[in-house]
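Q: Structure tokens for this one, please.
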Amino acid sequence: GTMLAYVFTDAAVRSADLRKAFRGAVERSFHRIVVDGDMSTNDTTAIFANGACGLPSLEGKDLAVFAEALHTLLLDLALMIVRDGEGATRVVRITVTGARSDRAAEAAARAVATSLLVKTAVFGADPNWGRVIAAVGRSGIDMDPARVEVSFAGEKVMRRGMVIDRQAERRAAPKIRKEAYGIDVALGLGKGSYFVYFSDLGHEYIRINAGYRT
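A: Here is the predicted structure, written as tokens:
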């Protein structure tokens, strides 16, 4: 579907400050979500500030508070999109740390978030760390399997490229049946990090998208 997100505020904010706050908030919200990896040609988000509150333009700490509130709002809206993904039953936050750079971490996180094998494993409540590592590997970033650690819902299931024990997977099992949880991948190579929210993919997605045409 097409995403149209418009934000209106009566706050008094200088154009340059509003643009900076909005771009930063969008980067940490709408730019951090994946449903199926596709986009509409008309996806749009915009903000309008008319200053009707009658107060002086925001600056300093007040501007920082406004920027953080804006980020919170946009993240709430962005997560609604993921939760409302066609047939979605779960929302997962994939966080990659320890990459050579933030850009490398982003490539790895997006590879996981868009992997059909990972998304179907999430739908099936399967802590399939092998699919996660495979997705990171195909992203093309620097990676040393002997340093990688993977956690599902806070339970570390893989350390230094090896399965820790099956008990960790058993502890993770009930947690990943919940509507939201996190997958963490630590690469152990640097300080780069990135996160993306994504939805699972199940039977309903296929039924919806195979059953209509525009």
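A few notes: DSSP finds seven helices and nine strands in the chain. The chain has a mean pLDDT of 94.
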